[in-house]
Amino acid sequence: MNANKIREEFLRFFQSKQHNIVDSAPIVVKNDPTLLFTNAGMNQFKDIFLGNKEPQNPRVVNSQKCLRVSGKHNDLEEVGVDTYHHTMFEMLGNWSFGDYFKKEAIAWSWELLTDVYKLDKDRLYVTVFEGDATDGLPVDEESIQEWKKWVAPDRILMGNKKDNFWEMGDTGPCGPCTEIHVDCRSDEERAATPGAELVNADHPQVIEIWNNVFIEFNRLKDGSLEQLPAQHVDTGMGFERLVRVLQGKTSNYDTDIFSPTIEQIAKIVGEKYTGSDSKEDIAFRVLADHIRAIAFTIADGQLPSNTGAGYVIRRILRRAVRYYYSYLNYKQPLLHQLIPDLAKQFEGIFPELKAQTDFVSKVIREEEEAFLRTLERGLQRIDDIVQSAKGEISGKDAFELYDTFGFPMDLTRLIASENDLEVNEMEFNDEMKKQKDRSRAASVLDTDDWMIINDSQTSRFVGYEDLFITTNVVKCRKVETKGKKFYQIVLEETPFYAESGGQVGDKGVLRFGEEEFEVFDTKKENELILHYVKSIPQNLNQPVTAQVDLTKRLHTMYNHSATHLLHAALKEVLGSHVQQKGSLVSDEILRFDLSHFARITEQELKKVSSIVNENIRENIAVQIKEMPKEEAFAQGATGLFGEKYGDVVRVVTIDPNFSVELCGGTHVPNTSLIGMFIITQESAVAAGVRRIEALTGGEAMRFVFERLNDHKNIVELLKNPNPLASIEKLIQDKTALEKKIESLQSREYSQIAKDLAQKAEKLGDFNFVSSILEADSADALKKIGFNLNQELENFVAVLASDINGKANVAVVVSADLANQGRFDAGKIIKQTVAPIIKGGGGGQKALATAGGQNVDGLAEAIEAVKQEVTVIV
């Protein structure tokens, strides 16, 4: 049975049990501050478990894209080393929201595995929760009794809290679970050691295949448990493991999920994959795994970057590049070549990659090209480190190679051993811990348990129609982060728009009687709308007046509707390939990121701006309707890749022939209210992504008046009604003067070099030149050094200067001495000069420079170099 058929059988089986098949949520998480990526199938249903949202269907089933790069067995550096852990994986799951429970979940699990997939019952074991005295939880007798209907008692094993009590996090929904394990060993191995002894013992062939979680508790911040109002089922079965078992393989990478990609890699690099533990075969597995994580996260809207989720993707991509560069001896971009076939492989279940094949490929290629250049610099850097190392590479240097240049510890260790060096791994681990601690401290959010004020289960947004209402508080909690304390309030109804879809959250006030509290932000946590305030009244159980800042909301609406006009205009001018890749809509500015692989020309920007302003002047009515998702797409509505849309969507139309988009944001009733639209900047954001920044309404008018005023002042200053001609003349004059200055400086540097050559001191068979000069830049010292080569042979020169209170030193070695290997300017600068002037530097064998804080150390540095070269003689 091939992988696609196995997935299809799972979905159809639970569909026959009245489960609704739902799409995978995007792999990139939005509106949940606790997660960067979807790491479990239940993430998209979190609000249902928390009681914040009513399920549309009490039974659902899907295959969810997940990403894990940390935690037990999910260290990124270990992926590819073994044969069964991954960064991205599919989680097959079925859920019951307050409907069926243990009896049905257990029976259906057994039916699917043994009747449909035909797994050998003699190879299966199950674990159940043994109870926990600390939490006052008894043994899960109900699960035991249900399992006894299907398996022998000796195959029902007891599991502790770590293995058989599932928790979403430190707080939140949780409950006991029952796991199904399969023994994939040979009959001889099974006869020698019973599989029961190897369950949960990290044996690579005795593995968990399915976990049925019975969510019935909520973990509070103080560690106690409270019973949830309803009991839920949350199951997860790793698709890659299931396919491996059903296809009789000993490695996930030997299944038809990964084998097509591995075969393609083998063709590209001209090597053969054997499935061994060699570095070359590990590289094959790393690439086959990582390309999926990279491709699907980019397709879901997360571009590689230097922060947050984007940094994680960049790390994964760079690890893959390191492996093919170092172990497959492939020195050009490779990963992007895998995208078309990968997209075709998954188009039936995850069509978003197929729809963006060109875009994703180009983004990956540009990232690869950039990192390959970085790798080259890293190899130069490690060469410098090796040359100056005394017995070992320090942990700090190893960490620099890891963090800046992407070198894994095993690569640094390999290069060190080739040069008879050790690596201080203890110091490296300390540096790694410091980085993780810094990252953790920057992102930690300490939240108290919710104070329940009213029993209402709703938190309804009414801000499309009303900006001023009277409502009640549902719940409230205190939050601390980065030393700051504030409160989050949930209201029964709210006019405040929560940050979403690029639009910032509303600001305004909450009034409790005579007390007024500023709402400084509004955000979503899953489906909850959270109002951020710095303090709260003593009595929250009273009516509250919620009032949105009307001015800020209006200006935000101008910008949001203008963003839709901009999107449509860009498609018209640049082409249908344009897709929104991010946006920011506030009361002050709009920012729009789009897929496009060339700089947008001034001519194109003018045309786009003209189209937007024309639509504004035409006073077009902005029509907003809710309709079924399929109907919206049939009408030509565009949505965003990476967004999870419900069955009913909100459609914003500005002329059916121009702009029809799915959008939950706030908009003007007609386009004329926007007033004016002006593009202020166009720039590159990432590979294949351009950014446009623009202003509307009053901000656009202010921008125009400021530019007109600037123009008036320039005309007056230049005393010419045609200032462009005057400015061009000034630029020409400036260029001519710079050339004259450069010519004069060249003569001066040449004369200084001649004077220094005449004062050269003979040290054995070479000349030594030294001087503390008056110079205006470090570049001047280098140019004087170059000129010395015209005046002198066989020399070492040390040229120093106090430049604006900073010590600057250049060491120059004549080409003949450098080529002979007698003296190395780079080593002299790093080992001798830099420590004395309390700075740093580097360079080549013939020329190197350093800068530092200790100006008083210049003479000492010169003398130290002289002593060093004298000793070498």
Features:
9-stranded mixed sheet; alpha+beta; single chain; 873 residues
Q: N- to C-terminal separation?
A: 76 Å
**Main beta-sheet strand count, sense and barrel state:** 9 strands, mixed
Quickly count the helices: 25
Low-confidence stretches: none
Strand content: 25-35%
Give the beta-strand count: 36
* SSE class: alpha+beta
Average pLDDT, rounded to a whole number, is: 91
**Residues in helix, %:** 25-40%
Q: What coarse outline follows from CA principal-axis ratios? A: globular
Measured on Cα atoms, how large is the radius of gyration? 33 Å
Report on the structure:
Helices cover 40% and strands 25% of the residues. With 873 residues, it is of the alpha+beta class. The strands form 8 sheets. Strands 1, 2, 3, 4, 5, 6, 7, 8 and 9 form a 9-stranded mixed beta sheet that branches. Strands 12, 13, 16, 17, 21 and 22 form a 6-stranded antiparallel beta sheet that branches. A hairpin with a 4-residue loop joins strand 27 and strand 28. Helix 8 crosses helix 9 (279-299) and helix 9 runs antiparallel to helix 10.
Structural topology:
Blueprint: H1 3-15, E1 20-21, H2 46-50, E2 59-67, E3 88-97, H3 102-116, E4 124-129, H4 141-147, E5 156-159, H5 161-164, E6 165-167, E7 172-183, H6 187-192, E8 206-219, E9 225-238, H7 239-246, H8 259-269, H9 279-299, H10 308-327, H11 339-346, H12 352-355, H13 357-388, E10 392-393, H14 395-405, H15 409-418, E11 422-423, H16 425-443, E12 446-447, E13 451-452, E14 460-461, E15 468-471, E16 473-481, E17 484-491, E18 493-494, E19 508-512, E20 515-519, E21 521-525, E22 528-533, E23 544-548, H17 550-574, E24 580-585, E25 590-595, H18 602-617, E26 623-628, H19 629-634, E27 648-654, E28 659-662, E29 677-686, E30 689-696, H20 697-718, H21 723-758, E31 761-763, E32 766-773, H22 778-791, E33 795-803, E34 806-813, H23 815-820, H24 825-837, E35 839-843, E36 847-852, H25 858-872
Parallel strand pairs: 1-2, 4-5, 10-11, 14-18, 32-33
Antiparallel strand pairs: 2-3, 3-9, 4-7, 6-7, 7-8, 8-9, 12-16, 13-16, 15-23, 16-17, 17-22, 19-20, 19-23, 21-22, 24-25, 25-30, 26-27, 27-28, 29-30, 31-32, 33-34, 34-36, 35-36
